[in-house]
Design brief:
single chain, 256 residues, Arc Repressor Mutant, subunit A, Rossmann fold, seven-stranded mixed β-sheet, two-stranded antiparallel ribbon, 15% strand, transcription regulation, Redox-sensing transcriptional repressor Rex
Amino acid sequence: MSQHRHPGAPGRAGAVPALPDLPEATVARLPEYLRALHNLAETGHETVPSEGLASAAGVNSAKLRKDLSHLGSYGTRGVGYDVALLIDQIEYVLGLTQRRAVALVGVGNLGHALAGYDGFASRGFRIAALLDADPARVGEEINGLVVRHIDELPRIAVEESIAIGVIATPAQAAQRVADQLVAVGVTSILNFAPCVLSVPEGVDVRKVDLAIELQILSFHEHRKASLTALPATGGSALTALPGGFGATDTQEAIGT
């Protein structure tokens, strides 16, 4: 985490508005830009052209320039972007100028892995509490933190100023844990449980489902295999979809 230099300071070139109203897609890409910028800074780069930063972040340069324009950053022709300044701007917009305390609930296999991940600290987060409902896990020490019972959450939330809750429990326990987090004032939740949570308005939930990501990759693998199997003449060799429709019949079936 770089030392913060307030991007909204008067007279600062490329200063960021107090809090720009960003499109969700832009917000989702800012952490990728920040990761790439930190890598550039660590290797001694003081400036970076838009093409170089876009390549490092895995986006096209036009999209990157548009995203960064929302922050008031346009770079310098022939030079590119000031790496340190852009880090400051993005960290400010993402609220990373203070290290946010995180409570991780559920210390099974996934929870253990998350609790031991060293990358949180360098990205602006502090795992402040590990909690579980299983008495067999309470008292276990993971990465310097002792697992505490979920019933202690109200007191811990106040003591540690918990800002974000991470749920790594089985699906059947996740909604109950979400309710407990909301009850103690947590309004941002990262959910690793394979289920959809019901939360009040004003509570933000991000869902991470590894099985869904694998299923999406499976689709792409299936699609590539299907394309490879097509005959060279261009005729249709696709098998019928479940329900009796062939892939080439679908458009006619739905009237397109």
